[in-house]
Amino acid sequence: MDAMTSASVLPPPPPLPGASSDSAAPGAAAATGTSAAPGAAAAHDAATSTTPPAATTVAVPPKVRISSPGRVAGAAAHLAALGVVGPAVFTALFSLFGSGFGLLPALLIGVVVLVAFVYALFAVAWFERARVDGLYRLGLAPFRPRRSAKPGFVGVLHTIWLQAIDPLQWRAVASFAVATVLGLITVTAIGIVSWGIGLVVSPIFGWSDTRLLGIVPLPGIAAPLTGAAAVIVALGAIVGLAILHGVIVRAIFVPSREAQLVEQARTSDTRRAGAVRAAEVERTRIERDLHDGVQPRLVSIGMTLGLAQTKIDDDPETAKALVAEAHASTKSAITELRQLARGIHASVLEDRGLDAALSALASRSHIPVTLDVRLPRRCGRAAEEAVYFAIAETLTNAAKHSRAAACRVDVRVREDGSLWARVEDDGLGGARIVPGGGLDGIVNRVTAAGGTARIDSPQGGPTTVEVNVPCAS
Predict the structure, then answer these.
(1) Most buried of 48, 219, 274, 429, CB within 10 angstroms?
(2) Please, which pLDDT band fits residue 265 given cuts at 50, 70 and 90?
(3) How do the domains of the chain map onto residue ranges?
(4) Between the CA of residue 353 and those of 312, 387, 388, 395, what are the distances in Å?
(5) What is the top EC class of this enzyme, as a single word (predicted)?
(6) What is the pLDDT of residue 345?
């Protein structure tokens, strides 16, 4: 199976059970089952982690009045605070960066400092996005650290690298830097306002020797007039800086309409390709199951009945035995057809929801499955089907390939409204994606529903399959 590259966007959820390798009808394994974790390890070759490209629809941000009095006042307060705090933050960041490079000859010490610098940048970016979204209500998605799909120490290094080059992080840091510069100017303007007010009230306190910038004397009424002008100009500058801040952050954080349309077109293409591929994989699976299972059994039934027909006159007892054998084979064929139909459409999912459908799935599993499903409401049909069949395929592959003794399935509705599930088994690991295989079907089905899938199956286990699908899909 080809290992697929990881495109993380998924904020890092809890570990998910089960991966798998070859295709197997999603609900195919009928039999005993208890409540235990769904597993899924498949072909035991090189370990692989996978995340298909994100295929979520780009939401058009709400219209925001950045020049409303409340937001202008809030932005001015933010800028004043950042004018005081921002320089200290950047001093600390530059100190970390310089110390890291300076200590590189000391190997681990310099590396640790540079890693701290990277995640200090992440902290600044997280704060800036939260600040901007709280002030302007732009509807920004929660900012989460990047995570590599690669296993082991290489995965740790790749995670740090992904975080260091994360464009969203650098855009947020740039916004923080711009806000800090505007904040320094705002603090200066506030100082001018204070100085101007002092000039305005100077005649009351009898200040006779007032000077502009400590040089130009301001005799008589010139002092209060100069102070009033300074206050008006400085207040206008503060308001202008606050409005400019709103314009800049919108340009940094909110994509243009053209960029949104391009992203929506790319997302639509990705989902359509995933849907087409998922349909191909499903058709191939159905053909294989019919050809390898039900069809030979029906042919055998026909031959058995034909043989019974030839013996019905000469050897009635043998004919009866053959008819009984054909009858038993017919029951088995019906069972196989039911399992095949369940793999195409789970009626219990539509009638009673995902929780009941997964309970039925776990009860038929050959290995114990522990279910932890917490769903406060029903999600969209496409989302529930994608998650259900992903879990079903994972459990099937775990039973077939992973040699797992137990599996665990967790399902949640996340804060962003998406349906998240994780399957983890305690099998051998080494699951890989092959075209037309079970993992390939999971990835394509989830991508077609607008979600993401992540598969982590290092050699030796455990195998974890994690899927995240928008509830509205």
Answers:
(1) 48
(2) low
(3) 48-57+265-470, 59-254
(4) 51, 12, 10, 19
(5) transferase
(6) 53
According to DSSP, the residues that pair with 212 across neighbouring strands are 216
Q: Which residue has the tokens 């059994």?
A: 297
CA-nearest of 449, 456, 465, 473 to 278 is 449
- Spell out the long-range contacts of 155-163 with Cβ–Cβ below 8 A and sequence spacing 24 or more: 155/49, 160/115, 160/118, 162/8, 163/118, 163/119, 163/122
The CATH number of domain 48-57+265-470, selected from 2.160.10.10, 3.40.50.300, 3.40.50.2300, 3.30.565.10: 3.30.565.10
* Distance between CA atoms of residues 85 and 381, nearest Å: 49
pLDDT at 118: 93
Give the pLDDT band of residue 179 (cuts 50, 70, 90). very high
Distance CA 3, CA 47 (A): 9
d(CA 68, CA 134): 15
Specify the residue for token string 């009941």: 356
Determine the Cα–Cα distance for residues 437 and 3; give it in Å rounded to an integer.
12
CB of 243 closer than 8 Å to CB of 67 = yes
- Residues 307 and 298: their CA atoms lie apart, in Å, by 14
- Confidence at residue 5, expressed as pLDDT on a 0 to 100 scale: 31
The one-letter amino acid at 190: I
Q: How far is CA 307 from the centre of its chain?
A: 59
How far apart are the C-alpha atoms of 209 and 187, rounded to whole Å?
Answer: 26
Coil vs helix vs strand at 139: coil
pLDDT tens digits along 8-66? 333 334 433 333 333 333 333 333 333 333 333 333 333 333 333 333 334 444 555 66
Residues 267 and 55: beta-carbon distance below 8 Å:
yes
